[in-house]
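From the shared-data thread, chain only:
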Amino acid sequence: MPYKTVYATILKTSFLLLLLSAFYGFLMRWNFSFPIAGFSYKNILQSHSHVAFLGWGYLSVLVVVIRFFVNEKLRDSIIYTYMLLVMLICITLMLFSFPLGGYKIFSIVLLAVFGCTSYVISFKLLRDIKQNSYSIKLIKFGIYYYILSSLATWFLAGVLVTQGKTDLYYNTVYFYLHFLYNGFFVFTLFGLFFRLLRRKGIAICEKDQKYFFILLNLACIPSYSLSVLWSDVSEYFNYIGGISALFQLISAVYLIKIIIKYLSEYSISKIPKVLLLFSITSYCFKVVIQFFSAFPYFVTKSIALKPFFIIGYLHLFTLGFMTVFIVFLLNEFKIIQLKSRILEISVFFVLAGIFITELLMFSQGFLLLFGKGMINDYSFNLLIASALLLIGIVLMTSVQFFKKQTI
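Structure, as C-alpha cells:
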C-alpha cells in the first residue's frame, strides 16, 4: 500500500480518535453533573487517556516525523506502513477494551503489541533519519525519551503483581508520563517546529537553537524528581527538581526569542498565529508550574487539591500545548488547511473549551487553597467547557475526515 495512502488514513483516524477521546471526557464530566447508572469512571478514564496521547498525539506526530525527516524512498517501507497500521488497530481496540474490561488481559496485550511495534518504528527512524541539524537532534532525543518512558510499562506489571498499588507503582506511572510528555512530545514537537522554520526560510540563530536544545536535555531526566515529591523522598529531590525546572525556564526564554523572530520575519495568517501563541503560552505556563512545584508548600497543596491543580496541569499540556500545537503544525505543513469558515469556528470552540476548563480548574484550586469554597455549579460549568471542546473537535474532524489530505 503506498505510504501516502497509509499516512493519510492514519492522520484522519487520529482526528477521529481525538474526537472519541474528547467524547469520553465529556461523558466523565456529564457523570459528575448527572450521574449515569453503572458508569465505570476509572475504565473510561483509562481509555480516554490512552487514546488521547497514543492514538491522537503519538500517531499523528509519528506520521509527520516520517513525512518530513525520512527520505522519500524509505517512507514506502513495509515496516513503516504495516507497523503504523498495527498500532492504529491496537489503539482503536482500546476504545472498547478499557471501558468493557478495564486494565485487564486484553488491554494489556494490546498495549504490549503497541509497545513492541513502536520499538520497531523507533529504531528504524533512528537509523533512517540523517543529517545533524538541531531539528533532527530534537527528534532523535524525543525518540530516545519515548523508549525510556516505555520501559516503565514493562516494569509496571511486575510491581502491580508483587507489591500492589504502592508508592513504587505510582512513581512508575509518573516515570512513564514524564518521559512521554516532557521527553517525547516536547522534543519531537519542537523538532518539527524547527524543521518548519527551515522550510519557510527563517534563519534562526544557531546559538539560540543550541542553548534551547542543551537546556531541555539538562532538565529532562532530573526533572522527573518533581514527579515523586508527593511520596516520602529526601529534600534533595526538591533541589534537583528546582534546578532542572530552572533550566526549563531558561530554555523557554530562548524559545520565546525564536518565536518572536519567526513572527517578525514571516507573515502568518490569523488562525495559525492564534494557535501558535495559545500553544506556546500553555507551554510556558506548564514550565512555570513545574518550577513552583519544586517548593514543598506547593507540593503539599497540589496533592491535597489534585482534582484541580494536577489534573489542570495534565490538561494544560495535552490540550493547551500538545493538541493545539499539533493542529498548528499540520496546518503550517499544509497537511490540513484551516481556511474555511467552519474550521475557523471549530478552532474558536476548541480554544474556548480549553481556556474555560483551565480557568475553572486553577481558579477553583486557588479558591480552596485560600479557604474560599467552591465555585457555584463548578461541575456543570466544566461540562459546558467540555461540550464546547467536543463541538470544536467534531467540526474540525468532520471537515478533515472527508477531505483529501496531502501528506
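Residues 49 and 373 are 29 Å apart (CA to CA).
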